[in-house]
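INFO  loader      accepted 1 record
INFO  loader      residues=348
INFO  predictor   begin
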Amino acid sequence: MIVREQVPLAALTTLGVGGPARYFVEATSEAEVREALGLALDRDLPLFILGGGSNLLVSDGGFDGLVLKIALRGVERFADGAEVIFRVAAGENWDDFVLRSVEENCAGVECLSGIPGTVGGTPVQNVGAYGQEVAETICEVEALDRQSLRVLTFGKEECGFRYRHSRFNSADRDRYIILRVSYALRRGGKPSVGYADLQKTFADGPSEPSLMEVRNAVRETRRSKAMLLLPGDDDCRSAGSFFKNPVITQPEFEALDERLRSRGLVLPSYPAGEDMRKLSAAWLVEQAGFAKGYCRGGAAISRRHALAIVNRGGATAAEIVALKDEIQTRVLAAFGIQLQPEPVFLGF
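INFO  predictor   done
INFO  writer      dumping tokens
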């Protein structure tokens, strides 16, 4: 295990901002993960687990502790009839795994194409997009318990999945280090095209698009919204959607909808479980008066997506937080809705 000091973190995040880590370890094996955890415990150091850096905002002062980058690699495949289990190491690139599953004609994650980051982060946030969530296909999560130092295996029901939620980012936040995730996919299964953008894409196309056609359509849609990481495009220098879509009760929705209709506004919403509605955070941001491209110093709202806060070049974490605060304040004042950030905040 190699321990480095004062390692800049900005280049290891998709936002490209933030200061250094006091100590930094890149672990390529479970043994190195344990060794790094032991180092943090022995020296009483705060520990942060880093994956692909795609859902992260690092403070300008950096992190006065140990950053452990999980770089475990490997994909195992087990077939049982129409079901195929992929057991994937946490350090694998997520989109590379999605591509492999599509190439092997296995359905279940095709709509999650183009999402940056690593496999280990997907169960933490219950990553989802375009009508799919990883909770639909995850069957097991293997994680190192930082308290007992044992590797535990959690079944799907034990993970506590809800919208952008799991036990790993709520009740058990900072307790487990994800090592591997297993996904149960459907060999020869039909792709998911229930999302409005995809239905529009294939309205005049094939009646049953292939998994690869759906993957390509998702990536193109993400590209059009600056949600696909592309070199040289400053609208892509972001942490993805900065705010979660709010979920409110049906009575709360009806009261807000009635108030907004009196002002000539129609509130977009979607079913979110029994007696719950999911609102469009992007719509709330724009209706609160924020145009795409709005800037505050080096931080800005993407020119192509109202939910992405981007680094136009040279932005500081403080500028990004100031823009976040301004958006939250105005949305709360206009609609009584408190937007919740999606990224993890490190070193604040």
